[in-house]
Amino acid sequence: MPELPEVETVRRGLVSLVIGKTIRRVDVLWPKIIESPEVDQFRNELVGETIEGVGRRGKYLIFHFTHYDMVSHLRMEGKYEFFPEATTLDKHSHIRFVFTDDSELIYNDVRKFGRMSLMKKNTGLQYKGIQQLGPEPTNETFDLAEFETRLNKAHTMIKPLLLNQKIVAGLGNIYVDEVLWLSKIHPEQPANTLTTKEVEILHQAIITVINKAKEAGGTTIRTYLNALGEAGHFQQELNVYGQTGKPCPRCGTPIAKMKVAQRGTHYCPHCQQLKR
């Protein structure tokens, strides 16, 4: 699944590829991907619109058109592919934006879980899913005191709590495993049992891991490619995710895998001990 660093990489790729392009036609081959408005209106309203910018909030992309915002969530395996001229669609190509210069932007989604919503200009951040997001994991927006307050009130295990986008935006399974390993925190540790020092370390680890992953262009697991058709390379820096049985980079203990809240979870049994 594309997580925040992957979506940010897609955003940067789109900025370099489609800014200033004007839509001549929109083909919708799988209508359920269009959340709102009705499919015919979605297609018609975008004709003649120019892409002025592409933003991001959490895992959501926000396309800024002349008169509209389009919120796009890639979900499990959604991706955008740019072609400088007309191309043949494959069976997983569901939305095609044809530009006036004959180049095309195609939304491809194996599982068809992605969604798009067209909204009034400058209202994309008011999209319901975006309104429910926690802060971006940056030094400027991710407040340590507020984070500690949220954790102190939570009796749930730390891993599923971090996967909750209301706590901090953009973390998924891969990066939560990496963050918890870096912080030496067991994935099943109840959030409200963490000390002030542990919360501080965890807070900084979230910012550090996400920043490094963004710089690396994200993590490629199986099929993920960015908008330029390139694979990210943060997977070369993964310490625990997908490393089952390999020695922990910190202590040499074999990395273990278990299920936490129905999610495959990788951790070091020595470095990340569950405190009772």
Structure commentary:
- By secondary structure, the protein is of the alpha+beta class.
- The chain has two domains: 4-131, Alpha-Beta Barrel (N-terminal domain of MutM-like DNA repair proteins); 144-267, Helicase, Ruva Protein, domain 3, CATH 1.10.8.
- Helix content is 26%, strand content 23%.
Q: How many helices?
A: 7
Question: Please, what is the oligomeric state?
Answer: single chain
Give the overall silhouette. elongated
Poorly predicted ranges: 219-226
Overall number of structural domains:
2
Q: Would you give the CATH topology of the largest domain?
A: N-terminal domain of MutM-like DNA repair proteins
Distance N to C terminus: 33 Å
Question: What are the main properties of this structure?
Answer:
single chain; 276 residues; alpha+beta; N-terminal domain of MutM-like DNA repair proteins; Helicase, Ruva Protein, domain 3; 2 domains; 5-stranded mixed beta sheet; 4-stranded antiparallel beta sheet; 7 helices; 11 strands; 26% helix; elongated
